[in-house]
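Predict the structure of nicotinamidase.
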Amino acid sequence: MKALIIVDVQNDFLPGGELAVKEGDQIIPIINQLQEKFDFIVATQDWHPADHGSFADNHKGKNIGEFIELNGVSQILWPIHCVQGSFGAEFHSDLKRDKWKAIFQKGMNPKVDSYSGFFDNNRQGDTGLGKFLKDSGVDEVFVCGLAEDYCVKFTVLDGISEGFKTHLILDATRAVNLKEGDFAKAMIEMENAGADIVHSSDIE
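Done. Here is the predicted structure for nicotinamidase.
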Protein backbone atom coordinates (compact mmCIF):
# COMPACT_ATOMS: atom_id res chain seq x y z
CA MET A 1 0.00 0.00 0.00
CA LYS A 2 1.12 3.56 -0.75
CA ALA A 3 1.31 6.40 1.78
CA LEU A 4 1.91 10.12 1.45
CA ILE A 5 4.21 11.64 4.08
CA ILE A 6 3.80 15.41 4.48
CA VAL A 7 6.85 16.85 6.24
CA ASP A 8 6.69 19.97 8.43
CA VAL A 9 4.42 22.31 6.44
CA GLN A 10 4.34 24.67 9.42
CA ASN A 11 4.10 28.44 9.70
CA ASP A 12 7.70 28.96 10.83
CA PHE A 13 9.00 27.28 7.67
CA LEU A 14 6.81 29.38 5.38
CA PRO A 15 7.32 32.98 4.19
CA GLY A 16 7.10 35.28 7.21
CA GLY A 17 8.13 32.51 9.61
CA GLU A 18 11.18 32.33 11.84
CA LEU A 19 12.97 29.85 9.56
CA ALA A 20 11.25 30.65 6.29
CA VAL A 21 11.90 28.52 3.21
CA LYS A 22 11.76 30.63 0.06
CA GLU A 23 8.62 29.81 -1.96
CA GLY A 24 7.62 27.27 0.68
CA ASP A 25 4.01 28.37 0.42
CA GLN A 26 3.93 27.46 -3.27
CA ILE A 27 3.88 23.75 -2.47
CA ILE A 28 0.67 23.87 -0.41
CA PRO A 29 -1.76 23.75 -3.38
CA ILE A 30 0.32 20.94 -4.90
CA ILE A 31 0.20 18.94 -1.64
CA ASN A 32 -3.55 19.51 -1.34
CA GLN A 33 -4.04 18.12 -4.85
CA LEU A 34 -1.75 15.20 -4.05
CA GLN A 35 -3.86 14.27 -1.05
CA GLU A 36 -6.76 13.48 -3.37
CA LYS A 37 -4.64 10.67 -4.87
CA PHE A 38 -3.88 8.92 -1.58
CA ASP A 39 -6.03 6.99 0.86
CA PHE A 40 -3.27 6.87 3.48
CA ILE A 41 -1.68 10.14 4.59
CA VAL A 42 0.48 11.03 7.58
CA ALA A 43 2.29 14.21 8.57
CA THR A 44 5.31 15.17 10.64
CA GLN A 45 5.51 18.22 12.87
CA ASP A 46 8.57 19.94 14.34
CA TRP A 47 7.64 20.37 18.01
CA HIS A 48 10.52 21.90 19.95
CA PRO A 49 10.71 22.93 23.61
CA ALA A 50 11.86 26.54 24.04
CA ASP A 51 15.19 25.38 25.52
CA HIS A 52 16.10 23.22 22.52
CA GLY A 53 19.82 22.81 21.99
CA SER A 54 19.61 23.57 18.25
CA PHE A 55 18.56 27.17 18.91
CA ALA A 56 21.41 29.68 18.63
CA ASP A 57 19.84 31.87 21.31
CA ASN A 58 20.34 29.07 23.84
CA HIS A 59 24.14 29.18 23.41
CA LYS A 60 25.85 32.34 24.66
CA GLY A 61 28.06 33.93 22.04
CA LYS A 62 26.92 31.61 19.25
CA ASN A 63 25.23 32.70 16.05
CA ILE A 64 22.73 31.19 13.64
CA GLY A 65 24.54 29.03 11.10
CA GLU A 66 27.44 28.11 13.39
CA PHE A 67 28.10 24.48 14.27
CA ILE A 68 28.39 23.01 17.75
CA GLU A 69 28.53 19.49 19.12
CA LEU A 70 25.19 18.60 20.65
CA ASN A 71 25.02 15.31 22.52
CA GLY A 72 27.81 13.87 20.36
CA VAL A 73 26.34 15.00 17.03
CA SER A 74 27.47 17.93 14.88
CA GLN A 75 24.63 20.45 15.03
CA ILE A 76 24.00 23.61 13.02
CA LEU A 77 22.40 26.37 15.07
CA TRP A 78 19.00 27.64 13.96
CA PRO A 79 16.78 30.55 14.91
CA ILE A 80 14.11 29.71 17.48
CA HIS A 81 11.34 27.97 15.55
CA CYS A 82 8.36 25.63 15.90
CA VAL A 83 8.17 25.98 19.66
CA GLN A 84 5.51 23.75 21.17
CA GLY A 85 2.12 25.45 21.26
CA SER A 86 3.23 28.49 19.24
CA PHE A 87 1.65 29.84 16.06
CA GLY A 88 4.89 29.07 14.24
CA ALA A 89 4.56 25.38 15.09
CA GLU A 90 1.04 25.14 13.67
CA PHE A 91 0.36 23.71 10.24
CA HIS A 92 -0.49 26.34 7.66
CA SER A 93 -4.21 27.06 7.65
CA ASP A 94 -4.52 26.36 3.90
CA LEU A 95 -3.14 22.84 4.26
CA LYS A 96 -5.90 20.24 4.11
CA ARG A 97 -5.85 17.82 7.05
CA ASP A 98 -9.15 15.95 6.88
CA LYS A 99 -7.67 12.71 5.50
CA TRP A 100 -4.65 12.44 7.78
CA LYS A 101 -4.29 9.18 9.69
CA ALA A 102 -1.77 10.50 12.22
CA ILE A 103 0.70 13.28 13.06
CA PHE A 104 4.19 12.38 14.24
CA GLN A 105 5.88 15.08 16.31
CA LYS A 106 9.66 15.34 16.46
CA GLY A 107 12.42 17.43 17.98
CA MET A 108 10.97 17.26 21.49
CA ASN A 109 14.21 16.18 23.19
CA PRO A 110 16.19 19.39 23.89
CA LYS A 111 19.47 17.48 23.69
CA VAL A 112 19.15 16.27 20.09
CA ASP A 113 17.63 17.67 16.91
CA SER A 114 15.34 15.59 14.74
CA TYR A 115 15.21 16.22 11.02
CA SER A 116 13.78 12.88 9.93
CA GLY A 117 10.18 11.93 10.50
CA PHE A 118 11.39 8.49 11.59
CA PHE A 119 14.31 9.05 14.01
CA ASP A 120 16.19 11.81 15.79
CA ASN A 121 19.62 12.81 14.54
CA ASN A 122 21.56 10.34 16.68
CA ARG A 123 19.03 7.61 15.79
CA GLN A 124 18.28 6.89 19.44
CA GLY A 125 14.77 8.35 19.44
CA ASP A 126 12.09 6.69 17.30
CA THR A 127 8.94 8.65 16.46
CA GLY A 128 6.96 5.47 15.80
CA LEU A 129 6.31 6.42 12.17
CA GLY A 130 8.00 3.35 10.71
CA LYS A 131 6.07 0.90 12.90
CA PHE A 132 2.79 2.71 12.25
CA LEU A 133 3.26 2.50 8.49
CA LYS A 134 4.32 -1.15 8.54
CA ASP A 135 1.52 -2.16 10.92
CA SER A 136 -0.90 -0.46 8.51
CA GLY A 137 0.38 -2.46 5.54
CA VAL A 138 2.28 0.40 3.89
CA ASP A 139 5.30 -0.63 1.83
CA GLU A 140 5.71 2.40 -0.43
CA VAL A 141 6.00 6.06 0.61
CA PHE A 142 5.88 9.36 -1.23
CA VAL A 143 7.54 12.23 0.62
CA CYS A 144 6.84 15.96 0.24
CA GLY A 145 7.03 19.09 2.39
CA LEU A 146 9.76 21.21 3.98
CA ALA A 147 12.63 21.49 3.76
CA GLU A 148 14.08 19.42 0.93
CA ASP A 149 17.70 19.65 2.08
CA TYR A 150 17.03 18.85 5.74
CA CYS A 151 13.86 17.26 7.12
CA VAL A 152 12.58 15.96 3.79
CA LYS A 153 15.97 14.53 2.84
CA PHE A 154 16.47 12.69 6.10
CA THR A 155 12.89 11.39 6.05
CA VAL A 156 13.52 10.01 2.56
CA LEU A 157 16.85 8.44 3.57
CA ASP A 158 15.32 6.82 6.65
CA GLY A 159 12.34 5.62 4.62
CA ILE A 160 14.78 3.78 2.37
CA SER A 161 16.74 2.38 5.33
CA GLU A 162 13.49 1.17 6.88
CA GLY A 163 12.75 -0.88 3.76
CA PHE A 164 10.06 1.25 2.13
CA LYS A 165 10.03 1.87 -1.61
CA THR A 166 10.59 5.60 -1.30
CA HIS A 167 9.79 8.46 -3.66
CA LEU A 168 10.62 12.17 -3.42
CA ILE A 169 7.94 14.39 -4.98
CA LEU A 170 10.22 17.04 -6.42
CA ASP A 171 7.72 19.80 -7.18
CA ALA A 172 6.12 19.44 -3.73
CA THR A 173 9.20 20.46 -1.76
CA ARG A 174 11.55 23.44 -1.42
CA ALA A 175 14.99 23.80 0.17
CA VAL A 176 16.45 26.07 2.83
CA ASN A 177 19.50 26.48 0.54
CA LEU A 178 21.90 27.79 3.17
CA LYS A 179 24.46 27.33 0.41
CA GLU A 180 23.63 27.75 -3.25
CA GLY A 181 23.06 24.36 -4.83
CA ASP A 182 21.93 22.59 -1.65
CA PHE A 183 18.64 21.60 -3.32
CA ALA A 184 20.40 19.76 -6.16
CA LYS A 185 22.99 18.25 -3.82
CA ALA A 186 20.27 16.83 -1.56
CA MET A 187 18.31 15.48 -4.53
CA ILE A 188 21.38 13.67 -5.85
CA GLU A 189 22.12 12.26 -2.38
CA MET A 190 18.57 10.88 -2.12
CA GLU A 191 18.67 9.46 -5.63
CA ASN A 192 22.04 7.79 -5.01
CA ALA A 193 20.61 6.20 -1.85
CA GLY A 194 17.82 4.62 -3.89
CA ALA A 195 15.01 7.18 -3.85
CA ASP A 196 12.80 7.51 -6.90
CA ILE A 197 12.45 11.17 -7.95
CA VAL A 198 8.96 11.95 -9.25
CA HIS A 199 6.69 14.90 -9.97
CA SER A 200 3.17 15.23 -8.64
CA SER A 201 1.77 14.83 -12.15
CA ASP A 202 3.42 11.39 -12.41
CA ILE A 203 1.33 10.02 -9.53
CA GLU A 204 -1.99 8.42 -10.43
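The longest strand covers residues 165-174.
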